[in-house]
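Check out one such.
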Amino acid sequence: MGAGGHAKVVVATARAAGFRVAAIVDDAHERWGTILLGVAVSGPSEPMLQDPAAQVVLAIGDNAARRRRAAGARCCFASVVHPSAIIDPTVRLGAGSVVFAGAVIQPDTVLGPHAIVNTAASIDHDCVLGEAVHLAPGVRLAGNVTVGDGAFLGIGVVVIPGVSIGARTTVGAGAAVVHDLPAGVVAVGVPARVR
């Protein structure tokens, strides 16, 4: 579900993982009838989200929007992992999680439902990512990092061991997180500071 730029990477990842993309649906009427990577876009999404037999990936980059669409859905949310990703067998992937090309996820890490681990991101041991977390390309999490529900870490963010990042917090591109960050803030810089 979703037909924006993020959906292109989700579709490409799903195909690389061996899935057949049967349909792309979007709630934006202006996208209906367009073609995304050879697949026609239709809508609305609600019938698919309420179909218990449907396997769905929420191809929506915005964390809050992804969580809203998941709420109350009756479909089966599929997790999609690019074949070039390296994921330890002890990792637990939440329903609807997406792991893109070149990502590395180390032992005993837990990804909540609808988490996005973007291109070439790395997550070390014993990390916990909440629901609808989005790690942008090139994010680096050291061991024992906790990232709260709906948090977004921008391109190239680095987080040292044992740090906690609060729910709905945004960390700007290239930041280095060396201390815990509270919920619902924006933090930028090296070291990352709340704006």
Remarks:
- The chain has two domains: 5-77, 79-187.
- The chain has a mean pLDDT of 96.
